[in-house]
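Fold this: CARD domain-containing protein
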Amino acid sequence: MESADQEILRKNLVALSTDLNPKDVYDALIAGGVLSFQDTERIGTKGTQRDKARELINVLLRKGPNAFGVFMDALQ
């Protein structure tokens, strides 16, 4: 992921971790080649929805250059 995109996610971490239900974007992220089923299983092991959203962002930060665009499309 590009550093500018990483910074956008970091600046919006509070809002994303509060408002985002990772399950709502899993299908689009898997279809877009950003997440694997193993990623979603690991995210699902976190306790609260907020923890799951934070873990999703952490995983996205380590993904390739297309991850941010696919994530933004998934949020639409």
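The chain has a mean pLDDT of 95. The two ends are 20 Å apart (CA to CA).
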